[in-house]
Amino acid sequence: MTADTTRQVSFSRPWRRKRLAIAVLLGLAAACPKAAFAGDNEDDAKAAKPAAQLPNIYLDMRTNYSTVPAGTLNIGFGNALSLPSLSSLSSVSGQGVAIDLPLTVDFNDRFSVFGGISASSAKTDLTSWSSLAIASWNVGIQADILQQNGGPLPTVTVLSTLTKSATEGPLATTSLTTVAEAAYALDADETRAWLAGVQLTNIRVDSGLASVRPAIVGYVGAYYQWPNNWKLTGRAGVQSFGGANTTALAPFLPPGQSLLSLHSFTQPIIRADLDRMDDNDNRLFGLTATVFWTPKPAFQFILRTPLYLVRH
Question: Is residue 288 within 8 Å of 301, Cβ to Cβ?
Fold first, then answer.
């Protein structure tokens, strides 16, 4: 059949054209609900898919107050951000105030990074309070390398902080503090747990005029979190300090101060934390009190008031 014949047949039978048009319209009508249904499914799938969220971002502001007995070095217990220099080591007792401002990013409930500055002021029995000034900067990470999640093994968390003096000089130091802690939860909600951990602090005097051997803290403890999200944590352990030789720094000290060679010691240490958490275990407020013998007793109090930029 030629093209002309086809054209002639189609014109001679117009009812076929009408039937074809009706069939096309019915097909479109049947397809439209399916298309609309498919569009609704796509919209529902997009709504069900969780939107990308920014991680928790906040300034973990910490206000520190500490006392330093005569002839001792204040190393501290925990996240030791405030160790700007060996100027805290003196033949007379002293006090210190520091403000730590690490910008912290919690990528998830297992991994965080932070970095910031510390400003401090200090006084001794022979000197008045110094001006508050930036003393050091710090960077660090915190990671859960193992999570219990109802299993037989505890959650193991590693916290490592690198701190360096903000100014150069014979008293400037660089320190690395690493804490490894295991928490064994006693219930499915992890509101009660036993703790055990170890902290290692290495201090290097940048000028090379002094040497400070490592300090190691081993401890055990526990925590309990009430239904209203207040959390109390207690730790008790032993601190072992390898000693230090700082006699070469004496000519660089201000008048009236002198450094001593410290002998090694092993003494007890106690720490208590009271925290206010939200329903997602974000810290809203924290208070820490630490007593450590060096061998004379020293005290440290920390007030934590995180300033959240993004909080989930």
Answer: yes
β strands within 107-191, DSSP E: 111-124, 133-146, 155-165, 173-185
Residue labelled with tokens 């979190």: 225
Q: Are strands 94-106 and 111-124 parallel, antiparallel or unpaired?
A: antiparallel
Domain ranges within the chain, ordered by starting residue: 3-48, 56-310
Residue 135 per-residue DSSP state: E
Q: pTM to 2 decimals? A: 0.77
According to CATH, the topology of domain 56-310 is Porin (2.40.160)
Nearest residue to 261 via CA among 269, 271, 249: 249
Distance CA 174, CA 86 (A): 10
Q: How far is CA 40 from CA 27, 67, 197, 241, in A?
A: 20, 66, 54, 68
Nearest-angstrom CA–CA distance, 279 and 231: 12
- The pLDDT value recorded for residue 127 is 82
For 165-190, how does the pLDDT look when each residue is reduced to its tens digit (9 = 90+)?
888 877 788 999 999 999 999 999 99
Cα–Cα dist 149/13, whole Å: 77
CA 238 to chain centre: 24
Those residues whose C-beta lies under 8 Å from the C-beta of residue 244, and which sit 6 or more positions away, are: 73, 89, 210, 211, 212, 213, 261, 262
Identify the three-state secondary structure at position 198: strand
